Amino acid sequence: MSTLHRELGIAYKDMATLYRTNAQSRAIEQALADRGIAYRVLGGTRFYDRREVRDILAWLQLIANRYDEVALRRVINVPRRGIGPTSMAKLLAFAVERNVALIGRSGSR
């Protein structure tokens, strides 16, 4: 793409990249992002917008920072374990009532 753009003057907006499997999208998207080339994904979902990717990233953030309540809220029920909106509301109310973090220290490790 860069060669077509640089040597032939073809605008990036006039180019398309086709791929067969979603597994290929991450490498292509990363290469475009690294080069500062704007892009749109048509007929599919961007790699980092996929639910499973966002869930894994949230788990990793929670591992890195066990007090990350945003990450906890995202993955507390992934995989499903029966913690729905009602249970979350009760947990949040409990934490607010006692002025404690939703996720906190649990003994020494």
Structure overview:
With 109 residues, this protein is an all-alpha fold. The chain has helices at residues 2-8, 25-34, 51-64, 69-75, 85-98. It has two domains: 2-48, no CATH class; 50-98, no CATH class. The chain has five helices and no strands. The termini are far apart.
Give me the number of helical elements: 5
Span of the ends, CA to CA? 51 Å
| Strand coverage percent | under 5%
Mean pLDDT: 84
Low-confidence stretches: none
Taken in chain order, the helices and strands follow as HHHHH
Based on the model shown, name its key terms:
mainly alpha, 2 domains, about 0% strand, elongated
Can you describe this structure in just a few lines?
This protein is mostly helical and 109 residues long. Helices cover 48% and strands 0% of the residues.
How do the strands and helices of this protein lay out in sequence?
Layout: H1 2-8, H2 25-34, H3 51-64, H4 69-75, H5 85-98
